[in-house]
Amino acid sequence: TLYQGLGGEAGIAQLVSRTLDRSASDARTRRSFEGIKLSAIKASLAQQICALSDGPCVYEGETMARSHQDAKIRASEFDALVGMLREELDAAGVSAAAKNELLRRLAPMKRDIVAAD
Ligand code: HEM
């Protein structure tokens, strides 16, 4: 399964942790994370990616539209975060097939996460 291709629970936890640490400090994306508890988003995003990759998890967080509406996220910010995720997938040695499949499953969320501008 894709879940296994991502390294299972531990692999996903590490990917999410590294991507969010970078997103919270990168000049292109950090403004949305000011005052936000990263540990809570890390746990929720890891659960979501576990579920999305056919792992043994059920995502119990908010919808993407509701959890991002206040931040008014721009397309450029979305693309920058996904770029960091892509780099972390490469750094973790995830196969191109698994990487592209994850990104393909995440892509439809863009319309709910990016604010209409
Ligand atoms: C494919 C892209 C993304 C996915 C899958 C995703 C997923 C998530 C998830 C699962 C949560 C937690 C929701 C909950 O626990 O109820 C969350 C929260 C959050 N996300 Fe994203 N996100 C994405 C893109 C972004 C981008 C581009 C930004 C900003 C640059 C961002 C900023 C935030 C912030 C600040 C929160 C916390 C909101 C709050 O607690 O008030 N996300 N995201």
Report on the architecture of this protein.
There is one protein chain. By secondary structure, the chain is mainly α. It has one domain: Globins (Globin-like, Orthogonal Bundle), CATH 1.10.490. It is built from seven helices and no strands. It has helices at 2-5, 8-25, 38-52, 64-68, 75-91, 96-106, 110-113. Helix 2 (8-25) crosses helix 3 and helix 2 packs across helix 5. The longest helix is centred in the N-terminal third of the chain and has 18 residues, at 8-25. It is globular, with a radius of gyration of 13 Å. The chain starts with a helix and ends with a helix. Protoporphyrin IX containing FE binds next to helix 3, helix 4 and helix 5.
Q: Name the ligand types.
A: protoporphyrin IX containing FE
Please report the number of helical segments: 7
- The top-level CATH class is Mainly Alpha
Task: Classify the helix fraction into a percent range.
Answer: 55-70%
The CATH topology assignment is Globin-like
Supply the CATH superfamily name.
Globins
Return Rg in Å: 13 Å
Strands, count: 0
Structural class: mainly alpha
Protein name: Hemoglobin
Keywords: Heme, Iron, Metal-binding, Signal, Transport
Binding site for heme: 68
Organism: Roseateles oligotrophus
